[in-house]
Amino acid sequence: ESGQAYKGEVIGIVGPNAIGKTTFIRILAGQIEPDSGYTTSTAFRISYKPQYLDRRIEGCVSVEECLKSVNSDALKEDNWLFIDVIKRLKIDRLFNKDLDSLSGGELQKFYIAYTLIRDADIYLLDEPSSHIDVEDQLSVARVIKRIARLRKTPIFVIDHNLLLIDYSIDRLMVFSGTPGREGHGNSPDSVAKALNSFLKSMNITMRRDPESGRPRINKPDSYLDRQQKTLGQYFYIE
Question: Which intervals hold domain ABC transporter (predicted)?
Protein backbone atom coordinates (compact mmCIF):
# COMPACT_ATOMS: atom_id res chain seq x y z
CA GLU A 1 0.00 0.00 0.00
CA SER A 2 1.09 3.58 -0.55
CA GLY A 3 1.92 5.71 2.45
CA GLN A 4 3.82 8.68 3.79
CA ALA A 5 6.74 9.13 6.16
CA TYR A 6 6.92 12.28 8.22
CA LYS A 7 9.88 14.30 9.46
CA GLY A 8 11.27 13.11 12.76
CA GLU A 9 9.37 9.82 12.99
CA VAL A 10 10.56 6.23 13.28
CA ILE A 11 8.63 3.67 11.25
CA GLY A 12 9.00 0.04 12.25
CA ILE A 13 8.60 -2.85 9.81
CA VAL A 14 7.62 -6.33 11.00
CA GLY A 15 6.48 -9.57 9.40
CA PRO A 16 7.49 -13.20 8.85
CA ASN A 17 10.83 -14.11 7.28
CA ALA A 18 11.12 -14.02 3.46
CA ILE A 19 8.02 -11.86 3.13
CA GLY A 20 9.62 -8.86 1.38
CA LYS A 21 10.70 -6.52 4.19
CA THR A 22 14.33 -6.31 3.09
CA THR A 23 13.27 -6.07 -0.56
CA PHE A 24 11.11 -3.07 0.37
CA ILE A 25 14.00 -1.37 2.16
CA ARG A 26 16.36 -2.05 -0.74
CA ILE A 27 13.86 -0.47 -3.13
CA LEU A 28 13.80 2.63 -0.91
CA ALA A 29 17.61 2.58 -0.87
CA GLY A 30 17.65 2.55 -4.68
CA GLN A 31 19.45 -0.80 -4.82
CA ILE A 32 16.71 -2.59 -6.76
CA GLU A 33 13.85 -1.44 -8.96
CA PRO A 34 10.21 -2.18 -8.08
CA ASP A 35 8.29 -4.53 -10.38
CA SER A 36 5.48 -1.98 -10.58
CA GLY A 37 4.56 1.41 -9.16
CA TYR A 38 7.15 3.98 -8.22
CA THR A 39 9.00 5.49 -5.30
CA THR A 40 10.22 9.04 -4.84
CA SER A 41 13.01 8.02 -2.45
CA THR A 42 15.63 8.29 -5.22
CA ALA A 43 15.21 12.07 -5.01
CA PHE A 44 16.55 11.98 -1.43
CA ARG A 45 19.88 11.27 0.22
CA ILE A 46 19.65 7.78 1.71
CA SER A 47 21.78 6.25 4.47
CA TYR A 48 21.27 2.48 4.61
CA LYS A 49 22.47 -0.22 7.01
CA PRO A 50 21.96 -3.63 5.39
CA GLN A 51 21.08 -6.82 7.22
CA TYR A 52 24.36 -8.53 6.36
CA LEU A 53 27.45 -6.56 7.34
CA ASP A 54 30.78 -6.45 5.52
CA ARG A 55 33.95 -6.46 7.62
CA ARG A 56 35.74 -4.49 4.93
CA ILE A 57 35.02 -0.94 3.81
CA GLU A 58 37.02 0.43 0.92
CA GLY A 59 39.48 3.13 1.93
CA CYS A 60 39.65 2.43 5.67
CA VAL A 61 40.66 -0.26 8.14
CA SER A 62 40.01 0.88 11.72
CA VAL A 63 36.70 1.92 13.28
CA GLU A 64 37.92 5.50 13.69
CA GLU A 65 39.12 5.76 10.08
CA CYS A 66 35.85 4.44 8.71
CA LEU A 67 33.72 6.79 10.79
CA LYS A 68 35.91 9.75 9.81
CA SER A 69 35.44 8.86 6.16
CA VAL A 70 31.70 9.63 6.35
CA ASN A 71 31.64 12.46 8.93
CA SER A 72 34.87 13.62 10.57
CA ASP A 73 33.04 16.23 12.68
CA ALA A 74 31.07 13.49 14.44
CA LEU A 75 34.29 12.30 16.09
CA LYS A 76 34.90 15.61 17.85
CA GLU A 77 34.03 15.24 21.53
CA ASP A 78 31.96 18.43 21.63
CA ASN A 79 29.90 17.46 18.59
CA TRP A 80 26.30 16.42 19.29
CA LEU A 81 26.66 13.30 17.13
CA PHE A 82 29.65 12.19 19.20
CA ILE A 83 27.59 12.62 22.37
CA ASP A 84 24.30 11.18 21.10
CA VAL A 85 25.58 8.37 18.89
CA ILE A 86 29.28 7.54 19.32
CA LYS A 87 29.32 7.87 23.11
CA ARG A 88 25.89 6.33 23.77
CA LEU A 89 26.77 3.26 21.72
CA LYS A 90 30.29 3.12 23.25
CA ILE A 91 31.87 3.23 19.81
CA ASP A 92 34.69 5.46 21.09
CA ARG A 93 36.05 2.43 22.93
CA LEU A 94 36.48 0.68 19.58
CA PHE A 95 38.29 3.45 17.69
CA ASN A 96 41.64 1.64 17.53
CA LYS A 97 40.16 -1.70 16.51
CA ASP A 98 40.07 -2.95 12.92
CA LEU A 99 36.67 -3.89 11.55
CA ASP A 100 37.71 -7.50 11.00
CA SER A 101 38.56 -7.86 14.71
CA LEU A 102 35.16 -6.73 16.03
CA SER A 103 32.69 -9.11 17.62
CA GLY A 104 29.26 -9.49 16.02
CA GLY A 105 27.69 -7.05 18.48
CA GLU A 106 30.49 -4.51 18.11
CA LEU A 107 30.26 -4.67 14.32
CA GLN A 108 26.49 -4.13 14.48
CA LYS A 109 26.85 -1.05 16.70
CA PHE A 110 29.61 0.30 14.47
CA TYR A 111 27.39 0.06 11.40
CA ILE A 112 24.48 1.70 13.21
CA ALA A 113 26.75 4.63 14.07
CA TYR A 114 28.30 4.61 10.58
CA THR A 115 24.78 4.93 9.13
CA LEU A 116 23.34 7.49 11.54
CA ILE A 117 26.23 9.99 11.57
CA ARG A 118 25.94 10.47 7.81
CA ASP A 119 24.01 13.48 6.55
CA ALA A 120 20.89 12.09 4.87
CA ASP A 121 17.21 12.74 4.28
CA ILE A 122 16.08 9.18 5.06
CA TYR A 123 17.71 6.49 7.22
CA LEU A 124 17.13 2.76 6.68
CA LEU A 125 18.16 0.15 9.26
CA ASP A 126 17.75 -3.58 8.61
CA GLU A 127 17.90 -5.72 11.78
CA PRO A 128 19.83 -3.29 14.03
CA SER A 129 19.28 -5.44 17.15
CA SER A 130 21.03 -8.50 15.68
CA HIS A 131 23.93 -9.86 17.80
CA ILE A 132 23.60 -7.23 20.57
CA ASP A 133 22.46 -7.77 24.16
CA VAL A 134 19.32 -6.40 25.80
CA GLU A 135 20.90 -3.32 27.37
CA ASP A 136 22.59 -2.37 24.10
CA GLN A 137 19.28 -2.92 22.30
CA LEU A 138 17.71 -0.30 24.57
CA SER A 139 20.60 2.09 23.86
CA VAL A 140 20.17 1.54 20.12
CA ALA A 141 16.42 2.15 20.39
CA ARG A 142 16.97 5.45 22.21
CA VAL A 143 19.66 6.55 19.76
CA ILE A 144 17.42 5.82 16.76
CA LYS A 145 14.53 7.80 18.22
CA ARG A 146 16.73 10.71 19.26
CA ILE A 147 18.40 10.96 15.84
CA ALA A 148 15.03 11.00 14.10
CA ARG A 149 13.88 13.84 16.36
CA LEU A 150 17.05 15.94 16.21
CA ARG A 151 17.67 15.50 12.49
CA LYS A 152 13.94 15.83 11.73
CA THR A 153 14.23 12.92 9.29
CA PRO A 154 12.28 9.66 8.98
CA ILE A 155 13.99 6.42 9.97
CA PHE A 156 12.73 3.02 8.80
CA VAL A 157 13.62 0.05 11.02
CA ILE A 158 13.18 -3.63 10.17
CA ASP A 159 13.51 -5.83 13.23
CA HIS A 160 12.13 -9.02 14.76
CA ASN A 161 13.01 -7.78 18.23
CA LEU A 162 9.82 -6.38 19.71
CA LEU A 163 11.73 -4.74 22.56
CA LEU A 164 13.55 -2.46 20.13
CA ILE A 165 10.37 -1.93 18.09
CA ASP A 166 8.38 -1.05 21.21
CA TYR A 167 10.96 1.41 22.52
CA SER A 168 11.84 3.25 19.32
CA ILE A 169 9.00 3.48 16.83
CA ASP A 170 6.15 5.91 16.24
CA ARG A 171 4.22 3.95 13.61
CA LEU A 172 4.39 0.41 12.30
CA MET A 173 4.16 -1.35 8.94
CA VAL A 174 3.07 -5.00 8.94
CA PHE A 175 4.03 -7.31 6.07
CA SER A 176 1.95 -10.42 5.42
CA GLY A 177 1.53 -13.00 2.65
CA THR A 178 3.18 -16.26 1.64
CA PRO A 179 6.89 -16.36 2.62
CA GLY A 180 9.18 -16.81 -0.36
CA ARG A 181 6.37 -16.18 -2.86
CA GLU A 182 4.50 -12.93 -2.30
CA GLY A 183 4.22 -10.29 0.38
CA HIS A 184 2.02 -7.30 1.10
CA GLY A 185 3.05 -4.29 3.17
CA ASN A 186 0.36 -2.27 4.91
CA SER A 187 0.61 1.50 5.19
CA PRO A 188 2.17 2.71 8.47
CA ASP A 189 -0.39 2.59 11.29
CA SER A 190 -0.50 3.22 15.03
CA VAL A 191 1.77 0.92 17.01
CA ALA A 192 -1.05 -0.52 19.12
CA LYS A 193 -3.29 -1.35 16.17
CA ALA A 194 -0.56 -2.66 13.84
CA LEU A 195 1.30 -4.67 16.48
CA ASN A 196 -1.96 -6.16 17.74
CA SER A 197 -2.73 -7.28 14.18
CA PHE A 198 0.76 -8.74 13.71
CA LEU A 199 0.73 -10.66 17.00
CA LYS A 200 -2.74 -12.00 16.24
CA SER A 201 -1.48 -13.37 12.91
CA MET A 202 1.33 -15.12 14.83
CA ASN A 203 -1.08 -16.32 17.58
CA ILE A 204 1.14 -14.68 20.21
CA THR A 205 0.14 -12.42 23.10
CA MET A 206 2.39 -10.04 25.00
CA ARG A 207 2.19 -8.20 28.29
CA ARG A 208 4.19 -5.33 29.71
CA ASP A 209 6.30 -6.37 32.70
CA PRO A 210 5.06 -4.34 35.71
CA GLU A 211 8.58 -3.83 37.09
CA SER A 212 10.74 -3.19 34.02
CA GLY A 213 8.01 -1.93 31.69
CA ARG A 214 9.44 -4.17 28.96
CA PRO A 215 7.23 -6.27 26.68
CA ARG A 216 7.12 -9.99 27.48
CA ILE A 217 5.66 -12.88 25.48
CA ASN A 218 2.98 -14.76 27.41
CA LYS A 219 3.31 -18.51 27.81
CA PRO A 220 1.00 -20.24 25.29
CA ASP A 221 -2.37 -21.18 26.83
CA SER A 222 -1.51 -19.41 30.10
CA TYR A 223 -4.21 -17.46 31.93
CA LEU A 224 -3.00 -14.13 30.51
CA ASP A 225 -2.64 -15.61 27.03
CA ARG A 226 -6.24 -16.89 27.04
CA GLN A 227 -7.59 -13.71 28.63
CA GLN A 228 -5.93 -11.37 26.13
CA LYS A 229 -7.04 -13.49 23.17
CA THR A 230 -10.62 -13.40 24.47
CA LEU A 231 -10.41 -9.60 24.72
CA GLY A 232 -8.67 -9.30 21.35
CA GLN A 233 -5.73 -7.55 23.03
CA TYR A 234 -2.71 -9.42 21.72
CA PHE A 235 -0.44 -6.52 22.62
CA TYR A 236 -1.56 -5.42 26.04
CA ILE A 237 -0.37 -1.86 26.59
CA GLU A 238 -2.10 -0.87 29.83
Answer: 2-201
